[in-house]
């Protein structure tokens, strides 16, 4: 019985790992550049875009971005591209209204 439980937990961890890889890939396969959070903003300069790319590690290779994303996920430190606010707080604020 214990062996079954450990095997089941191991399979779920592997499944979550692959789901996280697919989720990360889907975000990066979406059309558009994540650093251009507001492309219609005329005040957005090239150095602002570079600063956003560096802050969110978008100038790193995809596997390094995945490592940073997983670190932020496990430390609950995911930030919004648009206003750099914690995502969990934004979700919680909207959740309370629904």
From TrEMBL:
<keyword id="KW-1133">Transmembrane helix</keyword>
<dbReference type="GO" id="GO:0005886">
    <property type="term" value="C:plasma membrane"/>
</dbReference>
<dbReference type="Pfam" id="PF19300">
    <property type="entry name" value="BPD_transp_1_N"/>
</dbReference>
<feature type="transmembrane region" description="Helical">
    <location>
        <begin position="12"/>
        <end position="30"/>
    </location>
</feature>
<keyword id="KW-0813">Transport</keyword>
<keyword id="KW-1003">Cell membrane</keyword>
<protein>
    <recommendedName>
        <fullName>ABC transporter type 1 GsiC-like N-terminal domain-containing protein</fullName>
    </recommendedName>
</protein>
<dbReference type="InterPro" id="IPR045621">
    <property type="entry name" value="BPD_transp_1_N"/>
</dbReference>
<feature type="domain" description="ABC transporter type 1 GsiC-like N-terminal">
    <location>
        <begin position="1"/>
        <end position="84"/>
    </location>
</feature>
<keyword id="KW-0812">Transmembrane</keyword>
<keyword id="KW-0472">Membrane</keyword>
